[in-house]
Amino acid sequence: MGLLSILIFLPLVATLLILVLPTSAKATYKYIALGFTFLQFGLSLYLYGNFEASLGGIQQLEAYQFVEQLSWIRMDLGAIGKLEIDYLVGVDGISLPLIVLSTLVMLMGVGASWNIDKSPKGYFALLMILNTAVMGIFSALDFFLFYVFYEVMLLPLYFLIGIWGGERREYAAIKFFIYTLLGSVLMLLIIVGLYFSVINPVTGAHTFNMLHMMNPANYVDGSFFAYIANYHDVFGIPARLIGFIVLFFAFAIKVPIVPLHTWLPDAHVEAPTPVSIILAGILLKIGGYGIIRVCYSIFPDIAATTNWWLALIGVVSILYGALNALAQKDLKRMIAYSSVSHMGFVLLGIASLTAEGLAGAMFQMVSHGFLSAALFFLVGVLYDRVHDRYIYNFRGLASLMPKYTAYVAIAFFASLGLPGFSAFIGEAFVIIGAFNAESMTTGVPRWMAIGGSIGILLSAAYFLWTLQRMFFGQTRLQGGQVWKEALTDLNTREQVILFPALALALLLGIMPSLVFSNLNASVLQLIDLIKPYL
Amino acid sequence: MNVSIPNILDQIIASVPLFKPELALIIGFIVCIFIALFLEKRWRNSTFIGCIVTLGFSLYYLIGQLSTTATGFSGMWLVDTWSTYARLIVVCSTVIIAIFLQQQHSKNNGDVYSILIAATLGMHVLSSTSHWLMGFIGIEMVSIASYILVGYFSHNKTQSEAAMKYVLFGSVCAAVMLYGLSLIYGLTGNLDFQSAEHLQGLMDAPEAIITLALLFVFAGIGFKLSFVPFHVWSPDVYQGAPTAITAFLSTIPKIGAIILFARLYQSWSSTAFYFSELSTWFMTIVAIVTMLVGNLAALRQQDVKRMMAYSSIGHTGLLLMAVFAYQDLNSYLLFYIVAYVLMNLATFIFIDQIEQQTGSTSLLSYTGLGKKMPILFTAFTLVAISLIGIPPTVGFVAKLMVFTSTFSVFQSSGDTGALLLLIIGALTSAISLFFYFKIPLYAFLRSSDQPVILKKQFGVLLVIAYILTALVILFGIFPNWVMQVLA
Amino acid sequence: MITLTHFLVVSACIFCIGLYAVLAKRSAIMILVGIELMINAAILNFVAFGKYDKLNYGGQVFALFAIVLAAAAVAVGLAIILNVYRNFKTINPENIHELKD
Amino acid sequence: MLCPLLAFLVQALLGKKSISGNIALVAILASTLISLFGVFLPIWNETTILQKWAWFTIGQHTLHVGILINNLTALMQLIVCIIALPVHIYSRAYMKGDSGIHRYWMYLSLFCFAMLGLTVSLNLLQLYIFWELVGFASYLLIGFWFTKETAAQANKKAFLINRIGDIGFLIGIALVYANCGTLDLSTLFGKTSVLSSMDKNMSWVTFAGLAFFLGAMAKSAQFPLHVWLPDAMEGPTAVSSLIHAATMVAAGVFLLCTVFPLFNETVLFVITIIGTLTALSAAIFALGQYDIKKVLAFSTISQLGFMMVGVGIGAWNAAMFHLTTHAFFKCLLFLSAGAVIHEMAHLKAKAQLTIDPQDLRHMGGLRHFMPKTFVCMVIASLSLAGFPLTSGYLSKDSIVITAYEWASHLGTAYMLIPVLLIIVSLLTAFYIGRLIFKTFFGSFKYRSLTGAGISFHEAPKAMLIPMIFLAAGSLFPFFGISLTDYHSAWIMHTLETESSYPTLAQAHLFIPALLTGGAILAWLIGWNWYVKQKYPLSENNVWVHFAHKQSYINEFNERVFVNGTIGLSRILYTFDRYVVDGLTKFFSWFVRQLSVVVYWFDKHIVDGLVNLVANATYYIGHLVRHVQNGQLQTYLGFALTIVVLGILYLIIK
Fold first, then answer.
1. Among A207, B324, D98, D407, whose CB has the most other CB atoms within 10 angstroms?
2. B450 to chain C, minimum CA–CA distance in Å?
3. Which of A182, A261, A262, A333 has the most D C-beta neighbours within 10 Å, making it the best mutation to test the interface with D?
4. Which residues pair with A85 in a beta bridge?
């Protein structure tokens, strides 16, 4: 069993352990979860440390690292051919940063769940299953495997939101689930279509191997998604285009893009703090990762022709999300919408099809990962204390909770793209990439880049407005004296969780090469993959 | 063909080995009647044991037939992979149903087991023939046995109403089918639908009459499969019947009927018969409508059994899709059947177990039960996940394979119908999430203040259900365990 | 001379009468009777067609089986209707609608 | 040289409540010394130092960080250090006793670090980072008294408006990167410039130039993005002096000087126009202010307009020169004003008055109480007014003269700009005179209080020393030996620019000299006039007394000219307050409203649509159930009808 498998299935062991232990030992659950996630984090750091940055990955299996390949399902389906599903995992520069990020955010998530006392057994068990699924998604290279993990991820989330969530949790949970499932069942159809179109050059069988799908030579001529002699169309739309659109749709729900984002504010607002953290920190990244790993790598030709639209969607998301965030009165909802806006940058960067844009998008994902996690955690801190997060109900918190205010201010400024923090590097390079797109003739016009930069301005507006409204001025609270007493400053545990995230934001802001150096080769490889079709 | 009597006798005698499993059932049937008459009073579970033994014998002989492909009784009896595996599944699930019945209705139920065996026999007949006469006999055997099963325990209004609706609707469908069959017989002079003469006769016959006849015939099969528009009885009957019987109704009769239907479709599709193209359309439309109706109507249900009735209608749509996409290998249809049976049996056992505790099958009565029966509801949720078709469960693999084969049809033919099937199939699985997840929604997400006093929770049935759940997951992760057997 | 057509027409008429009884009669017994009529129409067909099937006598055999099965079905049906009557004190299907959406 | 600051930053973060002022002071002292002896002296007029380390690689390009020190940056760095040092010293006294003092030092050092970083940045991205960091530090400092609602509003506004500029800057960077593939300042603008091989009239160059200028506009408070600066006066006065007078606002000018080679004619012309407009409007606004700090703020904006013009006409060395001198005298002005405010605030606290300690109308006659402050302030004011013997005289002249040369080179229509600049100089003299007289002359309203045991005295030593130091710096010898010839100033010498109008005719040298002379004369007259006139305007009875002595023409002048000017100033200020600033407010209001609308759209239309689909599905489910009415015969009828329909369809088809 290789390192990656251990990384993936370690939390499953934790789940079993938690399930086996009697309820009387419920105090130990969180320690088990913490221990295992910590172990995972260490493991992911080991992966990071031993990662060979010069290897590209993307469509070359030999350039992937820590690869494990086991034949999993082999079925003879007669005329349809042989079904070939492998347990194939590996990391390249695209997945590695996200894996490290996930383990870190998971750690934060477990830390944030310290005070869960409503059936902790189920809670931590589900959290660990989610953990497994997430790791699986980021390392799976077989589409079937990917899909399995992708769907498995949804289940624990449904329950985590639905059982431990807020008032309208049922609505939020089912909305989230149906939204995502809708995307993924349609994705399944495309997976099936790809399966029929691609042949493993070694065995001659149809395959679910994503890397084979990325190589045009492996497509059967005339098959549904073939490059050559493809006369297939669906309702008049060429087959490859429809494949791309559907896959994009599936991942775009996760990203989320406007107008497929409406599950997000609901899910975030209703989810308990740790789940919000994980949702924002990891799950949104799956969308971006999927677009890079699946949509763009498997359909490079379509990616090259549709990127104008994708960039447009990205820009619209940026502005739309930011404007929505500005209108929010609920702090958590505001941050949720800010996520929409920030993830719009990811899409814009990806669509720019430049090395800068793509790397910026990846960086933005990583950065948004722990920054949004930190933000949601901060909201959670407030909510824990007074069970309210309505912005107008707070005033002048700075005098009451100076440490908290400091953390909030840092997190806000880091998120609004203050240089020196990671979000800046991400956003700046997305913008630079988008500008560069015109020089590279990838078809993304410059006004989109300008539109994106207006998003940066708007993000400053809503963060600063909130900061001023809630934290500055004379202390005046809705709940009066009761709240005043309840609003104690951050305790050590909370600081321990927050500090690394913000420190990391700073560290990555100052030394972006920590991320860039690892993903650069992969990004270039991806660009090379797409370039012939531009 | 040599029609001299000794020849026929020879043939019959030669065919008997092919008939061993059924012979075991016939003997068991008679023996069970006698046991129920004479032994039951003194020895409570004697009929049950007799039933299990009978089924065991049948199973034993079936396993012996595993790699046999043969015809017997002048071509009226087919033994091939389809029939053998279908019968295997039938017998296995009947064992579970028998245990189910024994657990829930242990008093004065001796006769039920013999009827159960009779139904099993009917299923065997249905799944191993391509002859209309045998088909009709099979359908009627299963039907009549089911009528009795539904009506047998009817102590109150709903149960008797369910039985009445079932029997009347079923009889009408059977009568209509019979009439259709008579027309087909008249037009072709042959009752073996796989034979060339039969097909030739159909092709020569006037289109109007043949259309009428075929649609009449589909009425009978449709009743068994409960596809639209012959699905209307199933929600009422499923709800009204005792849960053990509902479990039976929702699984076993469908197996035989779908096998028969698949044979029928297979023998017609891609022939010059004008109906072959039409039947493709027919299948597509029926499958789509069935999936839609089943899943949409289920959205509003408040009774779990009724909801499961609609769910099984929805699954029928998928089964039809599997039939539609048939190419040259039966394993994925069988796989779907296996998956379907596993899921449905487990579901109904869970429903029954909860009913034992709360006395209700209403979703509302599930409120907050997740805390009190965590293991049961976790397993129930897993099965529900499988019913939706989310990995890593067997339901997902089954659905994937159906989609796969449908896609290959689509790719090779460019048929819009196939595409529509795929899209609707995908969409309805998303829709189905909503109602299947009402179960965990009520059980886990809501909490009730009404204290529920729980009785003893351990039973053979639950163990079976947990094993089934485990299989649902295991086969989901390692589908090739099943597929290697089936292929 | 009574030709096949006559048989067919008669059987079609019987079938329709049966169908009418099934759909319109307000008594479960009458529905059963209707079903019986439909089955008999089919049986009539079988026998009529069977005349031309010299080889296997399939029609006659089918007819025999159909009669047996119909009898069995009706017997079960009657028993169940009796049970319904015990519970509902009526056998008018219109009044029996405990189970519905 | 950045190390002490960085090290200190860490200390400040750790050392919570300690009197971290000392650490900050030591750190800034160290940097001053290093920058003077270690950097400035060796570098000045010598070779450029360039040190770089690979930062990260993205795509094919590797970005470096590092230090680039040439004449320009060395000068800028020195200015920052030299201004920051006295401000630090001053702050120790000024901020004594404030509860958030450790935060103050933290922020201040952060600012210094950012500012120094900005000056020595190697590439544009690095520059941008420090640029924003400077803005951030300024945000923190403006909002230092965060419990004050206005302060919280002001810092938000400052940051947001700076953000607008930052976006411009970022776009500029992106454009440069997209077209040149590098952000390295030395490769971009050095000897072997990438740009030199390019056609400067390409549209992207214009756009990039304008984008950079937008950045500079926001930071250097150019019209119409100047609205944040007057509000920013909510911060402590020492901060205002350091940030909003001397260093940060000058960063915009510095940026323009740095990227000067990028600008083409169009951009430069826009810069000139905006600069002139700013200089003029801000000078007019300054006329009618009563808040001492706001007068200075508008004056700063006006002076920055001068510098912009300097850049715009291609004389960026003159702009830098003015930047340097302005840093000294404006800083001094603020510090002096701070001293006054400090005392007024003391007075207010002790006598429990409800007055605004910054309001000019409450002051007067303070020269008796604070003579040293008075002297310092007068020196600074003279320098601001461009009085000979002061540094301001040299630098301001350099801009005006060059502008004149530039205009005469281009044509008469352009003469408007130097003319306007001269008018602005006059106005400057007017308002600064008004400030001095209102503050230090006349009688003190609260004199009665001072007698009653409440002392009103000179600023403490820690405040005075820096002021005196700066006052020395505001005089001419610091910059050049020659009294009149700005060309001989050492700054101008070294930062030689290639003039875009090559024929720097000798004749032109006299005309501006004459013009300056005239200007000085005009100021002197105006000066005297205001000494007498300004006074009576506020005290009615004295005004009557003087009115008798003066001719009616004078009175007429008074009425029409002075009152008119002040009135105009008021009107224009109102305009600025309500229209320009109002526009900002309106814009922010508009964005907020837009956001509300968008949110409504999101909630009701987008989400509504989603829910509609869900509900529709749900409702269809309901419709489907209609068949299921429990009636057996309906069931049968339904099923058979469908069969019959199917048959009919198939037959008819």
1. A207
2. 27
3. A262
4. A73
Q: Which of B170, B148, B171, B174 is nearest to B160 (CA)?
A: B148
**Residue D50 in 3-state DSSP?**
strand
Question: In terms of DSSP H, where are the helices of D539-580?
Answer: 540-549, 552-556, 564-574
User: Helices B416-436 and B304-324 sit at what angle, rounded to 10 degrees?
Assistant: 160
Contact residues for D493 (Cβ-Cβ < 8 A; gap 6+): D487
3-class state of residue D123 by DSSP? strand
Q: How far is D635 from chain C (nearest CA, A)?
A: 9
Place of tokens 């022939």: B271
Two tokens, residue A407: 């953390």
CATH code for C26-92?
A: 1.10.287.3510
Within a domain: B248: no
Domain boundaries, chain C: 26-92
CB contact under 8 A, D128 and A428: yes
What ipTM goes with this model? 0.85
B325 vs D558: CA distance, rounded Å: 100
Domain boundaries, chain D: 3-535, 575-625
What is the C-alpha end-to-end distance of chain B, expressed in Å? 34
Helix (H, G, I), strand (E, B) or coil at D289: coil
Contact of C74 with chain B, judged by CB distance below 8 Å, is answered with yes
Any idea of the CA torsion for D503, D506, D512, D517, to the nearest 10 degrees? 170
Backbone φ and ψ of D121, nearest 5°: -60, 145
Contact B407 A196 (CB under 8 A): yes
Verify whether the Cβ–Cβ distance D636 to C22 is below 8 Å: yes
For residues A186-207, average pLDDT: 87
Domain for residue B313, yes or no? yes
> Is the distance from CB of A123 to CB of A164 less than 8 angstroms?
yes
Mean pLDDT by 10 residues, chain D (653 residues): 52 50 67 68 66 77 78 77 78 74 76 79 83 84 80 81 85 83 74 61 80 85 78 78 77 82 81 85 75 81 84 79 82 81 75 67 69 78 72 74 75 76 76 73 61 60 76 67 56 56 49 57 55 45 42 49 61 66 74 81 80 83 79 87 86 77
D548 burial class (0-12, 13-18, 19+ CB within 10 angstroms)?
exposed
Tell me the C-alpha distance between A143 and A137, whole Å: 10
Residue type, A482: V
Element (DSSP H or E) covering residue B87: helix B81-104
Q: Nearest residue on chain D to B216, judged by CA atoms?
A: D643
Question: Are the C-beta atoms of D409 and D503 separated by less than 8 Å?
Answer: yes
Domain extent at residue B420 = 277-487
How is residue D490 written in tokens?
């050492």
